[in-house]
Amino acid sequence: MEDRDSTDMETAEDKLRERIKELGCLYEVTSIIVNCDYDHPELSLEAIVRCLSKAWLYEQDARVFLQLEAYSYGSFPEADQWVSIRADIQVFNKREGFIEVAYPAEKYSVSDFLEEEKQLLSNVALEVGNLMERKKIRESELSIKRQMERADRLSIMGEITAGIAHELNTPLTNILGFSELLGDRMGNREEAEDLAKIRESAIFCREVVKKLMFFTCEVPQTRKVVPLKPVVQHVLQLLKPSFSDKNLHCQLRFGSDNTGVKADEIQMTQVLFNLIMNAVYYSPEGGKITVEVKEGRREITIAVTDQGPGIPEEVGDKVFDPFFTTKPTGEGTGLGLSVVHGIIVGHKGQIAYRKGRGGGAVFTVKFPKQ
Ligand code: ADP
Fold first, then answer.
1. Of all atoms in ligand 1, which is nearest to the CA of residue 332?
2. Contact, 282 vs 332, CB < 8 A?
3. 141-199 pLDDT, tens digit each
4. Which residue among 39, 69, 214, 332 has its CA within the 20 to 30 Å range from the CA of 82?
């Protein structure tokens, strides 16, 4: 500690200069926090570290390090070569990180940190904690707002589609019935072929109407406890050719073989079929699809994970809207996930998706345990 400059706090003027420096730093930190862009808090955290570096009596030798959740800024001082002081960053009373200021041990000791400097560090840590709390509150408000908007949008769409489905059901049944009667009476092969095309198209429309009714929970159900493992195995059997075409394999993870949900079996099959079929569609050649079923105390969770490209952020919850599709024309109707959504809501469950660790999509369905 001998060769340190003897600029220690000797005069009242020195002391005053130090106080001004600390207060200036606190003022600057507050301004950075007030102007924080909540989408990029890392910029503010970096600026705070830069600003803090100038606040110490021996600023030329001081090192500042900040760690918060997954972020870290500045250089971490190794314990044996540095003396340091540290203040924890608390977010909602939980320690989420810290700020540390260090001097090289060969020149300084812990007593070289002034009381006011320790106070400054605590204040800055407190401000950073408050900033993170405000960020979290904002995020949860945004997510609640989005959920409400989604529920509103889907319920309006539900009403409209229910009306359309009802209106179309009767004429479609007529088209199918009468074309069948006509077919029985028709001898000419060419005309019969035309009629078959009319019937095929009407059947396709009826399938769309059926899916819309699923979306609006208009389909009658018989609910009993449905064991999930056989349903998943049945769906995988149905999709076997698609799995082979792309050389995919499926990993099943069941907490217990007997986990079941109180649901309509056909609808449960539909849910798993649609989710796994999408996973197959988006999987790369040779990819892995994971179906995981977990039983918690209050709910049962089914997760379907793929290794595809995932869902772009800008798409958001639109994936659950009827007729929303990003597939090329002719390949998708955009009804798969809206049907799944309708069924899940009809069972008082929840559906969400997120990005998987490898970048693919993870669709999670939760059913309450009755
Ligand atoms: P469709 O499959 O007919 O497009 P869906 O309602 O099943 O209708 O899906 C809607 C959209 O959601 C898809 O077009 C696609 O953009 C997106 N999507 C669904 N599942 C996945 C997935 N596993 N990976 C990536 N995108 C997906």
1. 3
2. no
3. 988 888 787 777 777 777 777 788 888 888 999 999 999 888 888 777 788 888 999 99
4. 69
Token digits of residue 249: 């394999």
- The pTM assigned to this predicted structure is 0.60
SS (H, E, C) 24-75: HHHHHHHHHHHCCCCCCHHHHHHHHHHHHCCCCCCCCCCEEEEEECCEEEEC
Ligand 1, residue 315: give the atom nearest the CA. 16
Max Cα separation, the chain? 115
Radius of gyration of the chain (CA): 31
Q: Please name the residue whose Cα sits nearest to atom 7 of ligand 1.
A: 336
Q: 220-368, superfamily in CATH?
A: Histidine kinase-like ATPase, C-terminal domain (3.30.565.10)
52: CA distance to ligand 1 center in Å? 48
CA distance 194 to 240: 33
Per-domain boundaries in the chain: 2-142, 220-368
Q: Which fold does the domain 2-142 belong to in CATH?
A: Beta-Lactamase (3.30.450)
- Please indicate whether residue 322, judged by its CB atom, sits closer than 6 Å to ligand 1: no
Ligand 1 in reach of 361 Cβ (< 6 A): yes
Residue 178 token pair? 């009468």
Tell me, using a 6 A CB cutoff, whether residue 354 lines ligand 1: no
Q: Is residue 349 within 8 Å of 368, Cβ to Cβ? A: yes
User: 334: Cβ below 6 Å to ligand 1?
Assistant: yes
Q: Which residues pair with 90 in a beta bridge?
A: 95
From 242, 306, 311, 323, the mutation candidate for ligand 1 (largest count of ligand atoms within 8 A of CB) is 311
